[in-house]
Every structure is written in C-alpha cells, then in structure tokens.
Amino acid sequence: MQWTIRRKLWIQPAMMAMVLVVVGSATMMRTRTNLAEAEGSQQQQQEKLALASRWSGLTETNAARTSAMLMTGEAQVEAAIKADIKATSAEISGLQERIVALSVTEDERQALATVAQRRKDYLAVRDTLAAGKAAAGADIMQRMNSEFRPALAAYTEAQKAYVHLQETRSAQLRADMGAQRMRTVWAVIGVLAAVVAGLMAGTVLLVRLICVPLADVARAAQRIGEGDLTQDMPAGRADEVGAVLDALSAMQTALRRTVSQVRESAESIQVASSEVATGNQDLSGRTEQTASNLQNAASSMEQLTGTVRQTADSASTANQLASSAAQAARKGGAVVSQVVTNMEEITTSSRRIAEIIGVIDGIAFQTNILALNAAVEAARAGEQGRGFAVVAGEVRNLAQRSANAAREIKSLINASVEKVESGSKLVQDAGVTMNEIVSGVQRVSDIIGEITAAATEQSNELGQVNMAVTQLDQMTQQNAALVEQSAAAAESLKDQAVRLASVVTIFRLQQGRDVFSPPAPAPAPASTGLRSPSPVVATRPPQSRLVPRAPAPAPAPAPAREVATADAGDWETF
C-alpha cells in the first residue's frame, strides 16, 4: 500500500503524540500512586511521632506529680495528685496501645517492648514508694533518689530512643520519596530519549521516502526544460509525487502538441506571407477608387449639413416665440386665478355682512318689544309715567326705523352677493378657458421645442457624419501608404516564420526526429492558384451604396476559390 506524502507527514507526529500520551499517562499514574503512598506513610509517621511526643510529655507530668505526692504531707493534696496521676496513666496506656497498633516493623516493636518494660519497672517503683511512704518517713527522699529517679530516667530514655527511631524513619521516608521521584524522572527521560531516537530515525526514513521521488521528478522536469519530449514518465504511484508525474506527463503531451502546431503554423505563415503581397496590389487600386468616392460624398454632406442647420435656426426662432406666448398666457392665467380668489373673498365678506345685518334686525325687533313693554308700564303708572311713555314711544319708532333700514340693507346685500357669485362663476369659467389656452400654448411650445431639438440633433449628426467622411477620406489616403508598409511587413513576417521554425528545433518529439525541418518552396501551380482570383478580390469592394456593383467574373476552380474568398474577406475587413 502506497501512502501519500500528507499521510506520511502526519503519521510521525501522530505516533509521537500517542507515545507522549501513553508516557505522560503512565508517569502521571505512577507519580500519583507514589504520592499517595508517600503521603500515607508520612501521615502515619507524623501520627506516631505526635503520639510518642504526647506520651513522653504525659510521662514527665506524672513523674513531677509523683514527686510532689511523695513529698507532700497533706492528705487532701495527696489524694488529688493520685487522682490526676491515675487519669494520666490511663491516657498514657491508651497512647501506648495506639502506638503499638501503628508500629509494624520489628525494630519499632522491640523499642516499644523496651519502653513497656521500663514503664512497668517505673510503675512498680512508684507504687512501692507510694505504699511505703508512711513507713519510710524521712528516708523517702533517699529512696526517691536511689529507686524512683533511676527508674524514671530509664523509662524516659527508652521513650526518647523510640522517638529518635521515628525521626530516623521519617528522614529515611523522605529520602526514599526523593529517590523514587528521581527514578521516575530518569525513567521519563529514558522513554523520551527513546522517543526522540525513534523520531529521528522516522524523520530520516520520511526524508528518504519523500526526497528520492522528488529528485526523480526534478530530473524529469529538467529533461523537459532541455527540450527532450520523448521520455516516458514512471507510473503506478498513488501519492502526490505520482500526481506531479502525471501532471508532467500531461504537460509533455501538451508541449508535443503545441510544438507540432507551431511548426505547422510556421509553414502556413511562410505560404500566407507571399499571398499578402499579392493582396496589397489589389488593395492599392481599390483604395484609390474609394478615395474619389469619399470626396464626392463629403461635398454632398456639406450641402446637406448647411440646409439642416438653417432649418434648426428657424425652429429655434419659432421655439423662442412660442415660449414667449406661453409665458404671457401663463401670466394671464395667474391674474385670472387671483381675480377668482378675490371674488371668492368678496362673496365671503358679503355673506358675513348679511349675517351682521340680520343680527341688527333682531336687536331692533327686541328693542321694539322692550319699548312696547315700557309704554304699557308707563300707561299703568298714570300721570307719573307719561314722560317715560313718550320716550318709550320715540324709542319704539327708532327701533322700527332701524329694522326697516336693516331689511333694506339685507335685501341689497343679498342682491350684491348673487351678483358677486354670478361674476365669480364667470371669472372661474374665464380661468378654465385661460388654463386651456396656457396648456395649448405649452403643447405648441413643446412640439416646437422637439422640432428644434430634432433639427439640432440632425445638424450635429450630419456634422459628425461629415467629419467622419472627411476622416475616412484621410484614412483612405493613408491606407495607400500603408499598403507599401504592408508589403514590407509581409517580407518581415516571412523572415520571422523562419526564425520561429529555428527556435523550436531544440525540441525532440520522437526518437531520432527533430521538431522542424525547413519546408520546401511552394510549387508553381499552387502559387498561381492563389493569385488567379485577384480580379475577384479587386471587384468585390465596390459593392457599396456609393459605387455601382461590378459584374462577377467567371468562377475559378474549387480549391482556388476557397483561398481567394478567405483572402477577399480579410482584405475587406482590413
């Protein structure tokens, strides 16, 4: 099975990552186990040291209490001390049992057995002295110094030896933990060294697997660069190198095809360059005839341009007059609109006056009623109200006159309102008519404007056509000079075709055969066949609108006709 370069490049870091994960996991598990064991051992050792220290402190406390008990003469003090000594002894016994349970090694058990025996001796001496205290009397101090204190010293020395043993074991445990860590570190270093060595070996193998095929590809590319297109590319590889070799093979095939086409094109260019010279002669005659036709067309276009320009000027003048008329009609329409507005305002004011007159009439009517009531009241008053009745009568007369005057004014105002409304309708009709006049004048102005724009556009386009004809005449005259240059270019093209053929000679397409060999000159009949249709080429361009169509010549043989038709089309485009 062939692996790709991508897979080869990925397999090494993948294996390295897998090994690192395995090593890291194993190291982590081993370290965690060692730490757990070390922590357990360290904790147990610390607990034994703490218990042993507590045991030693309680022993010293009980020793001091025993001395005080033996030396005191008070019964109450002695009883209290004995109670404390008993409680402390019970606690010491409990500590001793816990230490014995935690001690697992032989030296610890031997040390504890020594401590237990010394304690028994110490307790025996203490109990004996306590029991014989009364009988000893003044000799109690001597017995304490000769019996109690040596037993206590032996007991405490045994305890210190046990504590020293535990301290030594703690130091040894720390040393073992350090050694275990170093062994773990060295084991990891060894595994990593093995991984690095394997990585280097895999790298060397990977470089060899990649570089050797790439060197083959480089040699094949170098041979293609030197022009050797005959080599066979190795096949059967399924990796990226195989893809590059397939691409080089496809490129070599494409180069073979391209070089063959270049060779055929060079031969065709040599043949076609001779035909170009023949076509140049026909082009020269047609160019002269085209130049004379263009001169006649240019003079006709100048006359037509003058006529259209005069029409455009007349249309422009008519457009100005129409614009003036439209502006005047627009002003008249605005004045009529203002008159309509004023008439509407007058109508509104007249209606308001009529309403006010109605109010005055109502006030006069109310005043007449009030004056009538006042006269009635004055008549009832008799002689005293006669003067007031006269005044009320005058007021009533004035009110009646005011009411009559208000009615007359109201009738006049109503007549005026009707006339104003009639005039307003007439003015509105005049405004509508004026707007229609303005719209008509505007439409006429727009039509004249369109005519003016069309005439101006025609004048401009004719000017452009005239300019284009003049330029075409100039270019036609220049083409006459270019025909000679084209002949020289045809000769140059032929020389370049020869040089192109010599350039591709470095390529080898097949075993023992070069790419290009100079072609033999074309035979005379083929050259005659290519030039014989020249009259056809000369007579086809006059098929334009300015020159009458020339009669078609007799048909030529089929092969020659195809070449001549292609040449004629090319020269017409030129």
Automatic annotation (TrEMBL):
Establish whether keyword Transmembrane helix is in the entry: yes
| Any Pfam family | HAMP
Q: Which PROSITE patterns match?
A: CHEMOTAXIS_TRANSDUC_2, HAMP
* Superkingdom classification of source: Bacteria
Positions of transmembrane segments? 12-29, 184-207
Reply yes or no: does the keyword Transmembrane helix apply.
Answer: yes
Example GO biological process: signal transduction
The main location class comes to membrane
Question: In its UniProt entry, what is this protein called?
Answer: Methyl-accepting chemotaxis protein
- Organism, per UniProt? Sphaerotilus hippei
Q: What is the lineage of its organism?
A: Bacteria, Pseudomonadati, Pseudomonadota, Betaproteobacteria, Burkholderiales
